[in-house]
Write a structure and sequence with these properties.
Layout: E1 3-7, E2 18-24, E3 27-33, E4 42-46, E5 49-52, E6 58-60, H1 71-88, E7 95-102, H2 109-126, E8 132-140, E9 146-154, H3 163-170, E10 173-178, H4 186-191, E11 197-198, H5 201-209, E12 219-225, E13 228-237, E14 252-254, E15 262-267, H6 268-275, E16 282-290, E17 296-305, H7 306-310
Antiparallel strand pairs: 1-16, 2-3, 2-15, 3-17, 4-5, 5-6, 7-9, 7-10, 8-9, 8-14, 11-13, 12-13, 16-17
């Protein structure tokens, strides 16, 4: 099926249409789809085969070698991570953004989580006057060694912690703390570069061996990194790091105290009452149609940022 995607600027949603309303701290999202599919399309028969319920065909499962082979699933994981961060990181004064790096080429994922658990025990013991929560995203470097991006949350305004203290508590290499001041969508900011890899000859060589076929569309340039404006733009391979993740590896984890986004189904009219006088920060309407007119759908999206609206 050949799919045509077009954007519509003048779309108006009926106030009685059922939408999905998502509340995440300072952020609201409204999603609408004109067509919904509640029926499963496939049935898993065994670990190697599934049944296409529409055609009756038995199809052999394709087992992935790394996470790059299922970019849709990775995209969904990053979206859930973004939503989790935005739900919990409401005031950045209570949070620290820390990167934990190994000095050695440590590639064992089980050891990775053991080391992090030990680190958190030390942190909670050292700062026992605080109730501490966390969200982490784990990334493999080009050489194979892992590093951890950590959001460390405190129930009071976070104390100043010298980098030397964090390195001592980590005990496995190097650490870096980055400021989160003046960022009104922390989830989008922190997940923007997860999965991408810097464009270097060494990285290209590694990824080509893992199956990457590099094109111009796979490369992007950035002028700012970790909130710091770069003297010269850097080039990155979009999704390059996904070739380094083992299959089924969880890109992120969170402590039990982290809240989940509040998701509700309701008429558009009720959603507009919830956002009140806030104006949408961003809206989008996409029409998707196959060239034979056998299928069409319309996706509408509204995004509201309370912090950005108040700061105007």
């Amino acid at each position: 099926m050949s799919v045509l995607k077009t954007y519509q600027d003048d779309f108006k949603i009926n106030e009685n249409e059922m939408i999905t309303f998502k509340e995440m701290g300072n952020i609201y999202e409204i999603d609408f789809s004109s067509r919904k599919n509640y029926c499963p399309q496939i049935q898993l028969l065994d670990k190697d085969h599934y049944l296409n319920l529409k055609t009756g065909e038995v199809i052999e499962c394709k087992h992935i070698v790394n996470r790059s082979e299922n970019k849709f699933q990775v995209g969904q994981s990053l979206k859930r991570l973004r939503d989790l961060i935005n739900t919990n990181v409401i005031d950045t004064r209570y949070w620290k953004w820390i990167t934990l790096t190994y000095a050695k080429n440590m590639q064992d994922t089980k050891q990775l989580y053991k080391d992090f658990e030990k680190f958190m025990k030390r942190v909670r013991y050292r700062f026992n006057k605080f109730n501490i929560e966390y969200i982490i995203a784990c990334e493999p470097q080009a050489r194979g060694a892992w590093h951890i991006h950590l959001l460390l949350g405190f129930d009071k305004i976070a104390p100043f912690i010298p980098n030397a203290t964090i390195e001592e508590l980590w005990g496995n290499g190097f650490t870096k703390t980055t400021q989160l001041d003046n960022i009104d969508n922390v989830g989008a900011y922190l997940t923007a570069y997860l999965g991408d890899m810097e464009l270097t000859e060494e990285n290209i060589s590694i990824l080509v061996k893992k199956g990457l076929e590099l094109t111009k569309n796979d490369i992007k340039e950035v002028s700012e990194l970790d909130g710091i404006k770069l003297k010269e733009p850097k080039s990155f391979i979009k999704g390059g790091r996904l070739y380094m993740y083992p299959p089924k590896f969880n890109l992120y984890r969170a402590s039990r105290g982290m809240k989940k986004p509040k998701v509700e189904k309701m008429p558009y009219y009720d959603a507009k009452k919830k956002v009140g006088s806030l104006k949408p920060t961003y809206t989008s309407c996409i029409n998707i149609t196959d060239t034979n007119n056998n299928f069409s759908n319309q996706y509408y999206y509204e995004y509201y940022n309370k912090v950005r609206e108040i700061s105007k």
